[in-house]
């Protein structure tokens, strides 16, 4: 009886084609699943740091597919060494490539490997059911080859490879028994022949097969050869089918994982959470998510636009920009899993911010049409309720109300539809309901300018209110007249509710707390109507709020008398008052009768009653302690007002003014106290979390900042590394030059802790100061620009002021040449406005310079010809001065000292060209300069020779040098890649020692080309000693 032939389904160690196919399959698996497996590993590690991510994933997959999970621990081992100590070492090198999965083999006492005859050259016949069962060799679960899976059945079977029921093989070709494989209590069972179940794709192992004894050549051998060919063909078909199934299974698995992750992202959106939708509804919406790819710097949504999609970030980062006082400011950052624009899937509301990508971003979007087509009316209505609670975040009286109460109020809102031209509320109507615009547009109109409330600074009588807007809140608690007419400009849908209906949605036991919360929120809102308090930092506003008291006045009571000293600000909360341009005595027709008011006098003055809560009187006393009432204020009814004492605000404003006065541009030498207090009222508060950049080096800005609370770091990038150059604490200011010039920021400022800052813009300052005061600011700003010019930074402050006053202003048209290469340098220019392009003598573009940049400072100092050509890009305004004018600003006896200071400043900048000194502080540079040697050379003198040992670095100060380059016939002036003459030579001389402890040798000879060459020599020992 012939020996059993190996199954065509089982790869043999001697089969090169089978091994190659298996290796190809494994490579394809690895490429397809590795990125997704890494993402899952990171997510699982975050959630369960003590568990092994891959084992958790394996356990979950087995459970999902109704397979028995392996009985192994899910906990992460304390160390690889300790894990491997209790189990045999894996026999193959493949295990070392996956340290996360410790390799374990079967007990060799239980399963023995049959002998293998390596000398057989012919394939034995196929195994028949009557043959002896083949024992499995030890299996390494980390092996890269496929593991056989066992099927179950009544008849004696064999191993079931990863094939479907449609396999062409019969039971006679199954070489192994169907008994499940058990190892250390772990059972691995594959799908049976009678079940259409997907095979396991991640189990791996190795095995061998019994080989038959050598056969004699002859007809029997030819028969075996024919069987071998047929078996190879069947094996090829099955293996191809297996690879196709494996690939399909992996694609399905990856797609399933991606869908589950996207489902988690979708569930974070409140409108689409499991509180609103079922798992099946969420699954259907996940299938409708559309992926988008955006490059860095792209605006996904733009503030003010109307959209109909929400977005979820799947990969990358974004910034949220909002327009504040006419400028775009970064208010937050978004990362993976963040969502935005969710209200757009329900309402045509303008986007409240711009979302801009800061890296390449993959985002998922869900359109309104897909949402409405997928969900029923019940779910959509539930989503609208949640969306309404988010709109409440813009309504001051509901901001501090709890979420559950907000949901109850949202459900109680009454929906109404108004045709175009319909009047929703009239000016004389008493406020009884809060209206929220859901769809359409409503116009607010005030009949006359005299009826405009003073808290509307724009003076616009007509205002358009779109979706998400509201009206009726201001007088809701007091029952005040609206004072405006509200008309539907198109078909409009509104949601409204009365204050009584709000109370009914609140549990009885919580109503008192609810009323107190709403009243406090309303009073804070009314206080914010005062211009000096509108933008006050929250920390200071709380102090003011605590000192504010509620007062009442009887009908006809005089609240403020014209000409009287004011010591408080009064804010109308309830009732009606009138302003009269005259003394209070002229209001009475019949003296002694407190309720008789001359109506004719009111009509003659064309005064209008002030009825809207938030009207304020006496705010002038917050900027002027001696302020007197400009008019008489009388109560027309019993009124309730908020009284804000002057001293409370002054104590807060005084501290703010002290901070402002420390800024040289805004000091008392430039501005009076009145202007400083006016600027305090214009301060804008900002909150920056720890780690947030307030601005970055190189950006163009127009705001200065003052630190109110917290600590910031000033950072400069030196040689590609961030270096902290200073710390900013409470009272510190930065960015002050931005309010005068469009200069790039010279450093980045990052919040070290949570920081509260206040800011002033260029517009704020220019609208407050007079023309003379602005000119003084410019002069001071120029002296601060001098601090960034190395040659001028060391001068005394008084001399800087004189130089600033001596500067001449010149304007260059677009394309005009400010400086030409090769021509004598007569004046140094400081760019005040605009930008210029720098080009080398050979025409190479060297870049741009912006406001604050300098032109020709070295040529002026050493009376040299210009090396660069400078051309204006657009209109350019410069401040210029000659060397004689600059030195002439000092007294005759001080001029030599000034020249030495200018030269010292230039040498400091020259020293910073050494890589070892770029990040050093001023004290270190001063120490190096004090010990560096100035050496002079005549024409033809050799500075260093080729091959000589370099022990110093040389910095060219004055003159020209040439370099004898090997292979070149003539010596050349050393230039950089842009054709600009270099000033640093033999920088290796201060680096240290080369390979083997040898010193660096000069690659060429350097000689002086002209007389009077002057160089700064920096020995290596000097840099080393100072570093130690």
Helix fraction by DSSP (H/I, runs of at least 4): 25-40%
**Which residue ranges are poorly predicted, with pLDDT under 50 across at least 5 consecutive positions?**
1-15, 79-211, 589-605
What's the average pLDDT? 76
Kindly provide the radius of gyration, computed on alpha-carbon positions and rounded to a whole number of angstroms: 42 Å
- Strand fraction equals 15-25%
Shape: flat
Instruction: Report the total helices.
Output: 23
Number of strands: 48
Describe the main β-sheet briefly.
Answer: 6 strands, antiparallel
Distance between the amino and carboxyl termini: 89 Å
Walk me through the structure.
By secondary structure, the chain is an alpha+beta fold. 28% of the residues lie in helices and 23% in strands. The strands form 13 sheets. Strands 36, 37, 38, 39, 40 and 41 form a 6-stranded antiparallel beta sheet that branches. A hairpin with a 4-residue loop joins β38 and β39. α1 crosses α2. The chain is flat and about 100 Å long. 31% of the residues are buried. Mean pLDDT is 76; it is low at 1-15, 79-211 and 589-605.
């Amino acid at each position: 009886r012939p020996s059993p032939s190996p199954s065509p389904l089982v790869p043999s160690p001697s089969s090169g084609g089978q091994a190659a196919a298996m290796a190809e399959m494994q490579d394809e698996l690895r490429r397809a699943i590795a990125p997704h497996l890494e993402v899952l590993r990171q997510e699982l590690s975050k959630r369960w740091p003590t568990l092994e991510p891959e084992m958790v994933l394996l356990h979950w997959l087995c459970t999902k597919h109704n397979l028995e999970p392996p009985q192994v621990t899910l906990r992460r081992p304390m160390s690889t060494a300790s894990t491997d100590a209790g189990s045999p070492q894996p026999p193959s090198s493949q295990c070392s490539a996956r340290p996360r999965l410790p390799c374990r083999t079967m007990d060799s006492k239980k399963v023995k490997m049959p002998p293998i005859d390596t000398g057989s050259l012919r394939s034995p016949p196929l195994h028949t059911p009557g043959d002896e069962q083949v024992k499995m060799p030890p299996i390494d679960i980390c092996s890269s080859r496929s593991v056989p899976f066992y099927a179950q059945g009544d008849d004696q079977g064999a191993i079931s490879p990863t094939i479907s029921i449609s396999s062409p093989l019969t039971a006679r070709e199954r070489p192994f028994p169907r008994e499940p494989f058990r190892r250390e209590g772990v059972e691995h069972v594959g799908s049976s022949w009678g079940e259409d179940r997907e095979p396991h794709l991640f189990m791996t192992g190795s095995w061998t097969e019994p080989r038959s004894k050598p056969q004699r050549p002859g007809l029997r051998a030819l028969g075996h050869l024919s069987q071998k060919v047929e078996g190879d063909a069947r094996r090829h078909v099955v293996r191809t089918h297996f690879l196709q199934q494996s690939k399909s299974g992996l694609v399905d698995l990856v797609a399933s994982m991606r869908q589950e992750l996207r489902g988690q992202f979708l569930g974070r959106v409140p409108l689409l959470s499991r509180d609103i939708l079922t798992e099946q509804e969420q699954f259907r919406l996940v299938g409708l998510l559309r992926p988008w790819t955006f490059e860095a710097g792209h605006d996904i949504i733009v503030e003010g636009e109307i959209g109909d999609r929400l977005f979820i970030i799947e990969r990358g980062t974004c910034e949220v920009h909002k327009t504040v006082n006419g400028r775009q400011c970064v208010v937050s950052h978004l990362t993976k899993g963040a969502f935005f624009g969710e209200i757009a899937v329900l309402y045509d509301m303008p986007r409240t911010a711009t979302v801009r990508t800061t890296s390449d971003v993959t985002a998922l979007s869900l359109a309104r049409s897909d949402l409405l087509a997928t969900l029923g009316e019940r779910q959509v209505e539930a989503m609208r309720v949640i969306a309404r609670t988010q709109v409440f975040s813009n309504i001051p009286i509901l901001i501090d109300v709890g979420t559950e109460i907000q949901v109850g109020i949202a459900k109680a809102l009454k929906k109404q539809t108004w045709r175009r031209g319909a009047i929703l509320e009239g000016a004389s109507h008493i406020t009884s309901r809060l209206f929220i615009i859901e769809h359409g547009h409503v116009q607010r109109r005030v009949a006359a300018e005299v009826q405009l409330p003073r808290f509307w600074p724009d003076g616009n009588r007509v205002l358009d209110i779109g979706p998400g807007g509201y009206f009726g809140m201001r007088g809701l608690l007091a029952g005040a007249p609206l004072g405006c007419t509200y008309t539907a400009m198109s078909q409009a849908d509104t949601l409204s509710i009365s204050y009584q209906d709000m109370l009914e949605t609140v549990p009885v036991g919580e109503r008192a707390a609810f009323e107190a919360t709403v009243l406090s929120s309303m009073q804070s809102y009314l206080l914010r109507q005062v211009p000096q308090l509108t933008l006050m930092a929250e920390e200071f506003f709380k102090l003011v709020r605590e000192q504010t008291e509620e007062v009442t006045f009887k009908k006809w009571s005089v609240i403020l008398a014209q000409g009287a000293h004011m010591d408080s600000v009064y804010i109308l909360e309830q009732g009606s008052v009138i302003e009269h341009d005259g003394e209070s005595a002229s209001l009475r027709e019949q003296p002694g009768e407190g309720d008789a008011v001359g109506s004719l006098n009111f009509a003659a003055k064309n005064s209008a009653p002030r009825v809207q809560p938030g009207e304020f009187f006496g705010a002038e006393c917050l900027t002027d302690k001696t302020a007197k009432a400009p008019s008489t204020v009388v109560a027309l009814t019993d009124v309730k007002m908020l009284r804000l004492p002057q001293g409370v605000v002054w104590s807060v404003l005084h501290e703010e003014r002290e901070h402002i006065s420390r800024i040289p541009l805004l000091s008392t030498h430039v501005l009076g106290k009145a202007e400083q207090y006016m600027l305090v009222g214009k301060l804008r508060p900002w909150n920056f979390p720890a780690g947030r950049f307030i601005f970055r080096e190189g950006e163009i800005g127009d705001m200065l900042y003052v630190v109110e609370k917290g600590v910031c770091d000033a950072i400069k990038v030196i040689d590609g590394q961030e270096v902290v150059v200073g710390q900013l604490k409470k009272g510190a200011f930065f960015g002050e030059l931005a309010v005068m010039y469009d200069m790039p920021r010279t450093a980045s400022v990052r919040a070290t802790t949570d920081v509260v800052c206040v800011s002033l813009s260029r517009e704020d300052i220019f609208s407050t100061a007079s023309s003379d005061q602005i000119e003084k600011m410019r002069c001071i700003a120029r002296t601060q620009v001098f601090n960034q010019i190395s040659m001028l930074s060391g001068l005394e402050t008084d001399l800087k002021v004189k130089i600033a006053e001596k500067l001449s202003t010149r304007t260059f048209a677009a394309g005009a040449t400010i400086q030409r290469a090769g021509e004598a340098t007569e004046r140094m220019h400081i760019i005040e406005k605009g930008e210029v392009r720098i080009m080398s003598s050979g025409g190479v573009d060297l870049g741009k310079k912006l406001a604050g940049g300098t032109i020709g400072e070295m040529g002026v100092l050493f009376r040299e010809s210009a090396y660069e050509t400078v051309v204006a890009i657009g209109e350019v305004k410069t401040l210029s001065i000659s060397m004689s004018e600059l030195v002439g600003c000092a007294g005759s006896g001080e001029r030599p000292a000034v020249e030495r200071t200018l030269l010292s400043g230039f040498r400091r900048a020259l020293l910073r060209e050494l890589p070892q000194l770029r990040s050093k502080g001023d004290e270190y540079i001063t120490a190096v300069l004090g010990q560096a040697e100035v050496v002079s050379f005549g024409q033809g003198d050799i500075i260093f020779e080729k091959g000589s040992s370099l022990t110093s670095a040389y910095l060219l100060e004055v003159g020209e040098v040439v370099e004898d380059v090997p292979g070149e016939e003539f010596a050349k002036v050393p230039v950089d890649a842009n054709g600009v003459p270099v000033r640093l030579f033999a920088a290796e001389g201060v680096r240290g020692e080369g390979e083997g402890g040898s010193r660096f040798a000069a690659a060429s000879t350097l000689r002086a080309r002209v007389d009077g060459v002057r160089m700064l020599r920096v020995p290596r020992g000097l840099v080393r000693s100072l570093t130690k």
